Amino acid sequence: MLESISLKNFKCFADNFFSLSNLTVFAGSNTSGKSTVIQAILLLRQSYESGYLDKRRMQLNGRFYSVGTLKDLVAAGSGDRNISVIISEDGMERNFHFEYAAGEIDGYKMKLKNELPENDIRFFSDDFSYLCAERLGPRNLYDIPEIMLSKKDVGIHGEYVASVMEDIGDKPAINQKLSRNAPNLRNAVKFWLNTIVPGIDIRYRRITGADSVSMQFNDTEIPHHQVRPVNTGFGISYTLPVIVAALNLSENSMLIVENPESHLHPLAQSMMGKFLAEAASSGVQVIIETHSDHIINGVRLTVKGNPELSEMTIINSLKYFKGNRENVEIKVDRDGNLDKSPDGFFDQIEKDLMRLF
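Above: the chain's sequence. Below: its structure in token form.
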């Protein structure tokens, strides 16, 4: 499990440290740097998967994230031609110190300056799934990809979720603890989907010769009533890949989800927070970026019902103020209470009500 990450001269961060845990939440204002922390993790992961790290290079544009050129990556105005991404795993610190040549700021070549860490890094070898904020909306047909990383990979936009469900939906979910011992992945997905968005069941059918999978939503309250996905809102389509990805991850793997609350009703957002907290308690390291206090409250309620989660949960509240980016680390106690609540941390409702009354 990754326990921390430090970023030096990396995009908006001159020198910043962030604690990570089984469940890590990044919250804060726009442009505060929440996405940047996640992007650093993605760049390391894709550089390893593509073989770039073995060649002592960072892959700036790849499967998980495309930053652009070095000008887009290195902290603006620093004049420093080096960046560092330092991760801590199982109590061991690994420093990835990259540099680029003078006059190449508009290029893509950034080489590893120090030696590759000698010891194996489990983060690189364990299962990993990332879902970006821009997930695929409702589709009646989903293409079957010619090449998939694995049969359980839902894709960073959730674009493979129908293929995954059609292919292995009748097999047991890999994460048996999170599946609540459901007989197969299909039933486990149905349970959690109905927890977050009640009244929905999903049917999949491969269309032979068309390299596609069709998807139909069934209203569980009205027998045999089917609804095309395009005749529903975005909430189900955005939620489904999150559920499938978490259920298909083994212990010690990592799940990163940006804006898990997208297109969900407040109650559903709270239930999504519960689902992600339970995924973390099942052994998956979960990292989320959110703008939703309902996600936070769903996490807090889950911690109150499962006090052991208290020591496994960290909320990083980022703030950009007068040119400086600062992070406040918030812990959740066994009763679901926050140990601190900095100004700007989901307090806008109270501020607006004070002005109204």
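The two ends are 47 Å apart (CA to CA).
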